[in-house]
Amino acid sequence: MTTDVTRNVATMRGLSSRLRPLTKVLPEHARAHNRSLVLQHLFHEGPTSRADLARATQLTRVTISDLVSALIAEGLVEELGVRPGQRVGKPAILVGMRTSAYQIVAVDLTDDMEMRGAVMSLNGAIVVRSQLNIEGRTGADLVDLLARFIRGLIASATQPVLGVGIGSPGVVDPEGLVVEAPNRRWFDVPLAADLADRLGLPVHVANDANIAALAEFTFGNADGDGFMIVTVGQGVGAGVVVDGSPMRGYRNAAGEIGHVTVLAEGGLRCACGRDGCLETVLAVPALRSATAGLSTQDSDAALASAGRLLGTALAPVISALNLSEVLLSGPAELLDGPLRETALEVIRDRTMPAVNAGLTFRMASLDEDVVLSGAAVLVLSGQLGVS
Amino acid sequence: MTTDVTRNVATMRGLSSRLRPLTKVLPEHARAHNRSLVLQHLFHEGPTSRADLARATQLTRVTISDLVSALIAEGLVEELGVRPGQRVGKPAILVGMRTSAYQIVAVDLTDDMEMRGAVMSLNGAIVVRSQLNIEGRTGADLVDLLARFIRGLIASATQPVLGVGIGSPGVVDPEGLVVEAPNRRWFDVPLAADLADRLGLPVHVANDANIAALAEFTFGNADGDGFMIVTVGQGVGAGVVVDGSPMRGYRNAAGEIGHVTVLAEGGLRCACGRDGCLETVLAVPALRSATAGLSTQDSDAALASAGRLLGTALAPVISALNLSEVLLSGPAELLDGPLRETALEVIRDRTMPAVNAGLTFRMASLDEDVVLSGAAVLVLSGQLGVS
DNA sequence: CCCCCTTAGTAAAGGGGGTCTACTAACAAA
DNA sequence: TTTGTTAGTAGACCCCCTTTACTAAGGGGG
C-alpha cells in the first residue's frame, strides 16, 4: 500500500480540539446528523419531496427514503400528498414536518417581577401563554415556583411536550447549571438537571440574551455567518452568533456587554458596583429618565448620545469578529431612531471600510417574545438538531 | 491506493447551519475524524500504547489497532518498542508519530521587504530557514517570486513535503483566495489554488495574524476555549480563537483590529486613510517614534498611554466573547512593560469581575517565528487534521 | 514452581449506515 | 402509442465500529 498523505482530511471542526475530551464519531452519529439535516430542511423550507431532499442534502434518494420513513414512524414527519402543478415524470409526494405533533414549553425569566411562559408549536407559534408574579421569591423557592409554573404549562399543552426551554438571566453553563444569577439568588443551581428530574422531560436552560440571538437566527433572518444582538431592557445584554452557533465564552459569560465601562469619568453608579457601565446609559430606565420631560429635540439628543456610547463600545467587537449584522432588541420608541442611527454612524466612523461596508445595524425582527422563541430553539436544537 | 485527493470534507460544526449548504456526513468521515483523533493524541501527548489510545479516544482497542496499522502503512506512525517500566500484564508497545517522516514548507509574508520561509518538521522544528528580498515586487510578479522561493525551499527539504503553508497579510478566504492585500497589490488572487497548481502540492494560505493565533494554540499553551492574540509589527493585527477554531468573520476580515479608531480627535493619519486608528499608536514605528530620545520615565508614560488605548479597545471584545487570555506578540522591549500592564489595568477597570477575574494578559510564548509555526499548523490541520 | 490475575493486542462475526445499480410507477410530450 | 423523464424502492455491496473470544506476556501469592 502506497502512502496517501496528500489528501485533505475531514476534521469535524471543534471536535478535534484538544481541549474538550477528544470525542469519537461513529456511523450512528453520522446517521443522527443526516436525520437532523432532513428535519432542518423541512423546518426551514417547508414540505419537500424525498427527491428534492436528496438533492438538497447530497444524500441518495435511497438514504433519504430510509430516513424519512424513520421520521414518519416517530411521528415527526408526515406525507402531505402529491405536489401540485404539472411537470414531467412521476409526481412527487411532499413530506413535511408535523409541527403540530409535538409542543414545546418555553419560559422567559428575564423579568424581575414575573415569569412568562408559553406552550408553543414546533414552528414557534404560541399556543398558550401564561405569566406568574414572582412576588419576590428567590433561590430554591423560586425554583419550586418555576417547577409548578412549568407543570401548569405542560398540563395545558394539547400535544405531547418535546421538552422545556428556559431563558434565564445570569451566567448559565452548557449543562443548564445556573452559575450565577444574582437577582434570583441563584448560585451554582443545577436548574436543568433539577427540573428534568422533577418533570420527567428534557429541560434546556441558557442565558436569555444568548437565546434571543438564537431566536433571531432561527425564526428571524439574522445572518448566521456572524451577528450580534443587543438586548435592552431592565439591563443590557448581548448574544453573539458566529458560524451558526452561539458564543459561549470560556466561563459561559459571553455577551455580558452591559457592564463594559463606556464613561471613564462622571458615569453613574451601576448595580454591579462600578461606575459608567453601558447599562447605566442604555438600559430602558436610564433612557427613560434621560429623556423624561424633554422636548423632542433634546430627547433625540439624549438618545443620540447613548447611541454614541453604544457605537463606541461595539466598534472593536465588530472589527475583531467582522460581524455582518447588529440587532437591537427592546422598545422601538427609544431605540429605533436617533440612538440606532448615531450608533451606526459612530461604528462606521470608527471601523475600516472592509469591516463596515457590509454591516447592517437594525432592530431585531422578533418582538417581546424573542426569549420565548429562543427557548423553543433551545429545545428544537437540543432534541431534534434543528436550528 | 493512489491519490484519493483533494476531497475537502465538511466541517461538523456549522453543518447544521442553514447558511452554508447542508452537508451530509458519511461513515468514512467518521473514520477520518477518528484517524485524526489518534494523530492528534500522538502529536500532543507523544508516544502512546494502542490500549491507552483506546482509553483516550473511547474507541475500542480493535478499532485503534486498525487505525494505527493504517497510519503505520502510510508512514505517519511507527512502533517504538515496549514501554519501559514494570507493571502487571502484557507490556505495551508504544507507537508514535514519525515527526521526521515528512516536512512542511512554511512562508511568512508579513514583512513588506522580504519573504521569510522555512522547512519544518511535523513538530514545528525549523530544519532549514531562508529569506528573500522582495525588492518592491507586487502583484503577479510577487506571486512568481514566491513560487520560485517555495520551489527552492522544497528542494532543500530532506523528507517528502506534506504541504505548503503561507501566512499573508490582508483578507484571505478559506480557500486561500487573497481577497485584498493592498501592500502586495493582491486583489482576488487565488494564491493557494495557483501555487498548488504550479507546485503539485497542497497549499494553504491564511491571514498572518490569524495563523499566529493558531500557532499559539497548537505550539504554545494558549487556552483554546477563547483567546486573542494581538500582533504588533509594522501594522497591528489580531487573531481570535474560540472553541479551538479561529474566527473567520463573515467576509474573512476577522481580527482587523488595527484600524479601529481609538482617538476620536487629534489622531494621526493612518495608512488606511482614516485618523486615529489603533495602528497609529500601537504599531512598532509609532511606538518607536513616540519613545525616541525620551527619558525612561517619559518613555514609559508614552508606552502606558498606548497601552491605555489598547485596553480601551479590547475591553468590549473581551466582554462580548468572555475570552480567557489576551496575548501580545511583538518586540518585548516595547510591549512587555508599562504598555502591557496599563492595558491590563484598563481592561480590569472597564470590564465586570465575572469577565476579568480569570483573564490573563501576557506576551505570546512564541518568538518571531509565530507566523511560520502558524503556517505549519495550517498544513498539519489541513492535511492531517491535527491542531 | 504453578496457578491465578491482569493487561495488550488481534481475529471473526455482527450490525448500523450509505451507495450503486436496477427496477417499478407515473406522468408529459411527440 | 412510444419515448423520455422524474419519483421512489429493493437488493447487493462496502465501510466502520463493536462485541466476543482468543492469544500473548507479564506479576504475585502460595
UniProtKB/TrEMBL annotation, chains A, B:
One GO MF term attached to the UniProt entry: kinase activity
Domain of life of the organism encoding this protein: Bacteria
Annotated keywords: Kinase, Transferase
Xref: PANTHER family: BIFUNCTIONAL UDP-N-ACETYLGLUCOSAMINE 2-EPIMERASE_N-ACETYLMANNOSAMINE KINASE, ROK (REPRESSOR, ORF, KINASE) FAMILY
UniProt family annotation: Belongs to the ROK (NagC/XylR) family.
Protein name: Sugar kinase of the NBD/HSP70 family, may contain an N-terminal HTH domain
Organism annotation: Paraoerskovia marina
